[in-house]
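Hello Y.,

Per our agreement to keep a running log of every chain we model this quarter, I'm adding this entry. I've kept the format consistent with earlier entries: sequence first, then predicted structure.
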Amino acid sequence: MDRPTQETVLIRYGEIGLKGKNRALFENRLMANLRATARDGSLAAIRKTRGRILADIAPCADREEVLARLVRTFGVVSISPARVVSLEDDTIAQVATEVTREALQKLPPSAPSTFKVEARRANKDYPRTSPQINAWLGTEILESIPEARVDVHEPAVRIGVEIRSDSAYVLGRTIPGPGGLPVGSAGRGLLLMSGGIDSPVAAWQIMKRGLEIEAIHFHTPPFTGPRARRKVEELVEALAPWGVGITLHLCHFTETAVALREKCPRRLHLTIMRRLMFRQASALARELDIPVLVTGESLGQVASQTLENLVATDEAASVPVLRPLIGFDKQEIMDRARKIGTYDISIQPHEDCCSVFVPSDPKTTPALEDVLRAEALLPERFLGDTAPPVQTIAFGPDGLRRE
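Predicted structure for the entry above:
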């Protein structure tokens, strides 16, 4: 009797399937991103087949680690570890029984030992229909595992069987992925990265829509210490595995912030500081050939995010600004931060330049003409339109620094 010869992961996508004539472009981008998660050789092969992607796990690879990487990839709706077998009845029945037994054994003691077979027959030459496969394998499993029961409505275990042209795939579990579109399929954006909760969530949200992210962080040593900078690096490390890696640009902002505090009206410091950041970030984006900025702003959440302040800061940007969290409330943002693994890093008590240099009573409804008049008090060198000097650190898809 044939034995399984290869352990494979069946990868499902959703929105990509609606892309019509451009579908292959999105599929190819997704496959490239999946390969990028496995540069250590943990995937032996990856290929497309009838609305699915199949990834073969290398014999020496850590199976659970491979699954954890694949399921973080945007564009992936779900994955299922699959055992690939021949189309012989005895082999399919044997492996389906083994997979069912393994899945039932992993259930908590209080869970019912119920299962359901869910067959999908892509190979129409196979003699049994999908309902017939369900009934046949259900009977085979019950004969081998007498303590099990079939429950077609709310089973504790679902056993998938996909019949394809030359093989059958037996699936014991399904792991949900983030969905969305593959990173890089929608272009590139430059994220204004603070050390707070919002900007990492904004990065995650816009990467889910296919945007590849680079980040810029404005730091003000010695007013902000090395731990504040390290906090931002840790946030990028946590985000990088969701995409194809992230490049972080560190911009020294101390001289600008000090000049702002000395020259401009105190209550407008926040608005003008944001404008100066937007101006410098726009210049860097143009130099990097990145068409948009991305921020973590949410309408009305804090003083810098009133409609008047958003209008004033946008006026200083020379490229469009995307705000993927504009309609989120704070609780939604915190919940998402916990889900993606950035919340505990963001709440570490290390200040950024805004908290150091911004007054306790900033102007929340500034008139743009007043802002422009106050900003003109700064020396001309702070109002230029050239990209600032930056220190650049690249983080790979594994979250590790690439020196």
